[in-house]
Amino acid sequence: MNRTLSAEEIAQAVETLADAIRTRTEGKPIALVGIRSRGDEVAERLCNLLADEDRELDLGILDISLYRDDFEHLHENPKLQESDIPFTVDGAHIILVDDVLFTGRTIRAALDALSDWGRPGRVELAALIDRGHREMPIQPDYVGLVLETNRLDHVYVSLENTDGKDFIEVVEPGSK
Ligand SMILES: O=P(O)(O)OC[C@H]1O[C@H](OP(=O)(O)OP(=O)(O)O)[C@H](O)[C@@H]1O
Ligand SMILES: O=c1cc[nH]c(=O)[nH]1
Question: Which atom of ligand 2 approaches the CA of 99 most closely?
Answer without folding.
Answer: 7
